[in-house]
Amino acid sequence: MKRKFSEEQVNLLEQSFEDEHKLETERKDKLAFELGLDPHQEYSKLKTEYDTAIVQKCHLEYII
């Protein structure tokens, strides 16, 4: 089951990945807390979901 991110969560993820492409443990835990996610969620899964959300966002912007 895929998690749907809110617009606020997507914006926070976009900013985080623009600032840092690899998150250190402390930053990853803080970001997970800010997003309401499990802090033990792996970076790769979070990055994959971020990439999916960006594609969906771009698709929606194209439609509108």
Structure description:
By secondary structure, the chain is mainly alpha-helical. The protein has one domain (7-62). Helices cover 70% and strands 0% of the residues. It is built from 3 helices and no strands.
Q: Main traits of this protein?
A:
64 residues, 3 helices, 0% strand, transcription, sequence-specific DNA binding, Homeodomain-like_sf, nucleus
Would you list the SSEs in sequence order as H and E?
HHH
Mean pLDDT: 78
Q: Count all strands and give the number.
A: 0
Q: Major β-sheet, in short?
A: none
Number of helices: 3
- Unreliably modeled segments: none
Judging from the principal axes of the Cα atoms, what is the shape?
Answer: elongated
Structural class: mainly alpha
Q: Residue share in helices? A: over 70%
Number of domains: 1
Distance between the termini: 27 Å
User: Beta-strand level of the residues, as a percent range?
Assistant: under 5%
Q: Mind telling me the C-alpha Rg?
A: 12 Å
